[in-house]
Design brief:
alpha+beta; Nucleoside Triphosphate Pyrophosphohydrolase; six-stranded mixed sheet; 4 helices; Putative MutT-like protein
Length: 173
C-alpha cells in the first residue's frame, strides 16, 4: 500500500520505531455475491482491499474512499465485522508498524472494478467457490462477512477482585 504523506512525515521525525497505526480492511460484495480482491503490487498476492485512514477520517469514510481509489468501485459500509491489533510488521526498509484494524463488510453500489492506482496489479470480482489462494485471516474475514456473527474483538482479561472492587468505589478487607 502506498504510504500516506502524514506517515512519511512522522517517519521523518521518529525513524524506524514501532508505530501503532489505524487500518481498515474491507470485504466488498457485489449484487451477485462475489467478493472484490486486488493483487497487490508490494506482495504480488491477492488480498482484500485495505488502507489507512487519513487524520480525522472515520473508518467507514476511509473504507469508501480506499475502495474507490484502489478499484474504481463505489461502495457503502454495511457493518463492522471485527476490530483487532495485528502482529508487528517490519518492512524492507526497517520501518516497523502495528495496526489496529477495523474490518468492514461493504456492498458495491456502482463503478467498474479495475486497477485504479499504483497499489494493485489486478482487481477482480471472484465467486466464493473460485477464490484465488488467500491466507487464513482473509478467508476468516470473508466467512465472518457471510455470517450473522456479532462483531469480534479480543476480550480483555478479567480484572482481579481487588482492582474491580476499587474501581467500583468499594474497599476489600
Amino acid at each position: 500500500m502506498a504510504t500516506p504523506q502524514f506517515i512519511l512525515d512522522i517517519r521523518g521525525r521518529a525513524g524506524d520505531v514501532l508505530l501503532l497505526l489505524p487500518g481498515v480492511v474491507m470485504v466488498v460484495f457485489d449484487d451477485r455475491g462475489r467478493v472484490l480482491l486486488n493483487r497487490r503490487t508490494d506482495t504480488g498476492r491477492w488480498a482484500l482491499i485495505s488502507g489507512i485512514p487519513d487524520p480525522g477520517e472515520q473508518p467507514a469514510e476511509s473504507a469508501v474512499r480506499e475502495i474507490q481509489e484502489e478499484t474504481g468501485v463505489s461502495a457503502v459500509v454495511d457493518r463492522v465485522l471485527s476490530v483487532f491489533t495485528t502482529e508487528p510488521v517490519t518492512y524492507g526498509n526497517g520501518d516497523r508498524a502495528q495496526y489496529i484494524e477495523t474490518v468492514l463488510r461493504c456492498r458495491a453500489v456502482g463503478g467498474e472494478a479495475r486497477v485504479n492506482d499504483d497499489e494493485s496489479l489486478d482487481v477482480r470480482w471472484f465467486a466464493l467457490d473460485e477464490l484465488p489462494p488467500l491466507g487464513p485471516l482473509a478467508r476468516d474475514r470473508i466467512d465472518s462477512a457471510l455470517s450473522d456473527r456479532p462483531t469480534w474483538f479480543a476480550p480483555a482479561p478479567a480484572p482481579d477482585a481487588a482492582l474491580a472492587a476499587e474501581g467500583a468505589g468499594q474497599r476489600l478487607p
